[in-house]
Amino acid sequence: HSNQLRQARAMGDYLIVGVHTDEEIAKHKGPPVFTQEERYKMVQAIKWVDEIVPGAPYVSTLETLDKYNCDFCVHGDDITLTIDGKDTYEEVKTAGRYRECKRTQGVSTTDLVGRMLLMTKAHHSNIDEDLDYRKHTDNFGKGPKGRSPWTGVSQFLQTSQKIIQFASGKEPQPGDTIIYVAGAFDLFHIGHVDFLEKVHQLAERPYIIAGLHFDQEVNRYKGKNYPIMNIHERTLSVLACRYVSEVVIGAPYAVTADLLDHFRVTLVCHGMTEVVPDKDGSDPYEEPKRRGIFQLVDSGSNLTTDLIVQRIIKNRLAF
Question: pLDDT value at position 87?
Fold first, then answer.
């Protein structure tokens, strides 16, 4: 989704994103995983979005475009149909006020749902795919005409170009407060957004560096088949957030003196979630605590990756 918004923003000067209500989505597609309030806030937190329209109509009309003073609308190159099988963009296409962007291959909502339900680890960045997973995913992603390129489960291929497109490219400036946060940031969600927003408010000029743990490290402390999103997907999800300036891809689990000195970190923050000890039983935040630069931050949100997975499982029949 972030990549679609990034491409759309690059086509113009100001990006307005219409977000549908739960009711509209349930009618045309099925029950959404996130509530409309969660989705409004999530979309607003993506750095290429200038404004959102809550409760936008499912079918994009010229009337809507004119109402918000938009020259054109953008959608991915996969078609969306209404409940009665009509192209939802027909009217704006005819009027020549429609642009298309490339759908991001290798990751989709359907694919992520599949990973949660199948409980496999084949999506992790350096585990050979197991045949069991292949078999399930083939069933999972087939339409009437065989395999769909959009819903079939496929590996997301990271490139340096993608990272550059998502990265802010801004170095910390003199006077910036350099804040370090670390975690899995799996299935980047409103709990993460609320936490990062709170951290962002701690300083006049915050420069937030997010350290992301490798898949194997996350699996060590989270267990099961976590993380649901591999390191490449998590990197881009976090970079797309407007509060984050930089990401450390594969950060060490223990926040070391080397890391703090290297990035000239002034403050280290962690949310209210449990901190699992390091392999040797030590506290990963020992060093920042010793320096007196560690701070717990309450995001005010109780949403966790676990809860999202539970919502999916509860809705699995509907999905």
Answer: 83
